[in-house]
Write a structure and sequence with these properties.
The chain is mostly helical and 160 residues long. The protein contains 5 helices and no strands. Helices cover 62% and strands 0% of the residues.
Length: 160
């Protein structure tokens, strides 16, 4: 039995790969039924880190129903999709801020602007994390390319 007072992080274990466009690398069709407005609110709460009990209380469900809902495949898939959207948004924000952060670092290094420790740390973090996101996107692209090549080889059984 899990501690239901903490976020349900097992839902994060297999968040799908997000393409450069910020969408999951599939056709976007899950074949499942559409979620109700209440289920969508539950998914949104889980995706921002609420525990199933907290998410259930927010939408007027019992804790038991919240625990049951979190195990539904369509809820799990919706949380994964929402997390992918959040990651894509973070990528965009970091990418758009990287040039400004790099400029800020150069201005402080050259003495054009005062070098404040908090600003240096923030600029450095933005640049480093944007670089990591770019590197990760390139690795994902290369992995997808390799998977496609392996899948086309005769007598090769590839499992993703």
């Amino acid at each position: 039995m899990t501690d239901d007072s903490k976020p349900d992080l097992h839902l994060l274990e297999s968040v799908p790969v997000v393409s450069e466009s910020g969408h999951p690398d599939d056709d976007g069709e899950d074949g499942g039924e559409a979620l109700s407005a209440r289920e969508i609110r539950f998914v949104d709460a889980l995706a921002v880190g609420r525990s199933p009990s907290e998410a259930a209380r927010e939408i007027g469900l019992s804790d038991r129903s919240g625990r049951r809902w979190r195990k539904k495949p369509e809820i799990i898939e919706a949380v994964r999709a929402r997390l992918s959207e959040n990651i894509a948004t973070a990528k965009s924000i970091l990418a758009s801020g990287a040039a400004k952060a790099a400029t800020g670092l150069v201005e402080m290094a050259s003495g054009e602007k005062p070098a404040e420790a908090a600003r240096i740390a923030a600029c450095r973090s933005v640049v480093e994390n944007a670089t990591k996101m770019i590197d990760l996107a390139e690795i994902e692209r290369q992995l997808s390319e390799l998977q496609a090549r392996l899948a086309t080889q005769p007598n090769h059984q590839f499992r993703s």
